[in-house]
Amino acid sequence: MLAGVLEVPDGPVRGWGVFAHGFTLGKDSPAAARICRRLAREGIGMLRYDNLGLGDSEGDWGDGSFTVKIADTGKAAEFMAERGGPVELLVGHSWGGATVIAAAREIAGVRAVATVGAPVDPSRVERHYDAVVEKVLAEGSAEWLIGGKALTLKRSFVEDVRASELRARIRELRLPLLVMHSPTDNTVGIENASEIFQIARHPRSFVSLEGSNHFLTGAGQADRAARIISAWADPYLSPEPGPRPRVE
């Protein structure tokens, strides 16, 4: 079972979306929580959830992969649709940005995709665990420490990430795409945004998050990103006066 938080607007609902968090972050990371809360205040209901084995979700993180993250995003959208809030907007931060691009064409009803600090190549995360990757490939798994927590990295995870191919998915997206990135991002370089934007077809937009860090932890950084997403997504949302999704 995956755990999530549904941010529901207090007033009229302009639309519904799903947020995909970064590589080993979670639904309560600053980017996820603050962007989704602000979008809800702007009338866009958002579901933010923990991927397999992270935060409050069940399972072993090592059994996940980029492919599993894509599938989980689809499951989150299905959850929303079943409860009366069909998803039209996908928003992703960092690795989650790559995920929503890859997942968008597989989710019925999605009309727009927004990314924040996304890599053009998901396999670039390997630099985070390069110290143990050879052991993983040789022995099948190894413990990996990141951010004070221990995760089990498995061979299938590494191989799946290495096989991921996002560039073709960007080219075939054929949906409105908003690419947001900070030119001073020291975690995922701005060149990633440049390549994503160059590969993508119109309608495409790029916004520089000048002064922001990769994790949007500075005062007002996530709020600003959310307000940009809200304004940009407006033409692609279908406000409906019907019942709101059930929260269970």
TrEMBL record:
Gene3D superfamilies: alpha/beta hydrolase. Transmembrane segments: none annotated. It comes from the Bacteria. One of its GO terms (molecular function) is hydrolase activity. Keywords: Hydrolase. The keyword Hydrolase applies. Residues 18-216 form the AB hydrolase-1 domain. This is Alpha/beta fold hydrolase. It comes from Kineosporia mesophila.
